[in-house]
Amino acid sequence: MEAMSLCIWKYPFCKLGFVNTRRTLYRTRLNVGLALSPSPVLLHTDGSGKFQEYKKGSGSNTVGIIGGLSVNSTLNFLRNLINWSSRDGESCPPFVLCSDPALNKELLSIERPSFPSVISKNEGTELDPTLIVENLRSKRIYLENSGSRCIVMPCHISHSWHDQISEGCSVPFLHMGECVAKELKEAKLKPLEAGSPLQIGVIATYATLKAGFYQEKLRNEGFEVVLPDKATMEHTVIPAIEALNRKDIEGAQNLLRIAVQVLLVRAANTVILASDDMRDLLPPDDPLVKKCIDPMDALARSTIKWAQSAKEGAKTGKSLIMSSLSSASASARTLVAKHTINTTSITKPLGTTIPPICSHLKFCTF
């Protein structure tokens, strides 16, 4: 696939961009016509940006992406997928993105009521995620039917229902919690004290922590999990997110630093920042950044590894097929040669003509 077009519907206009195999470009244009009919769909373009007819199953390493809690977090994931996969001159794997603003609001309604200030007003009520799960499942099926060979979901809260969404999926469906847990396992971390267990801290919203999938995946890899206690959640984590929503960046950074320090003091080797709001909140030169890991980044790296493996697998499979066909062609020639009769040695009756045997055969070179 030489180029892919990403269509993200967001009122009142549509942002359209494409990825070139030789260089990464971001183009934005106003298209009122497209904005009139919002739909989560990916369109293909040629190098000039003109639309082409979509072809199902266009690539053996095509990645299907289900948009997350916010468009910004999805775009951050895409930016990493594109930039990191193109570091060594390789082209970005083809991808299909399903982004739905209405779903974003529904996911937000699940996560935001987990704040204490909202819980106090809606105590005893719990939103039913059934419709959200059905929506996410339909998007997964859409991506499968669109030719995706792997599905990813760069959204923390959506992973609360990963098992239900992935049920019956015919292609690999990467789990963000599993990706980050395996990365930490491969990092061969050493305990802070000899003989003590490896502990990983997790900072997230109440809804994500309640779902428990990060804790489960980390424990499956042999880690012990350190979570913020009630006081830390109420006085640092949630206030940090609320400060960020008020555009109080400095206040949010200071509160997040305190939350991370609390888990490090409790002997956590590293801290997983499992929140869209906390992504890139700390500046890159902050010493605490080296002690933290973003699951979105782990998912992007795992997606790139899968795409590269699938691409190499397709090349190897093609080579084996061509080699088999070549061998079959050579065997056919040998077989025909063995059964060819020298007609010149046959005595012909007077007045008859014997056509050469196998003169009607034609060889097909594979």
Automatic annotation (TrEMBL):
TM regions (residue ranges): none
Signal peptide limits: none
GO MF, one example: amino-acid racemase activity
Superkingdom of source: Eukaryota
InterPro entries linked to this entry: Asp/Glu/hydantoin_racemase (IPR015942), Asp/Glu_race (IPR001920)
Pfam families from the UniProt entry: Asp_Glu_race
Keywords: Isomerase
Protein name: Uncharacterized protein LOC110750044 isoform X2
Organism: Prunus avium (Cherry)
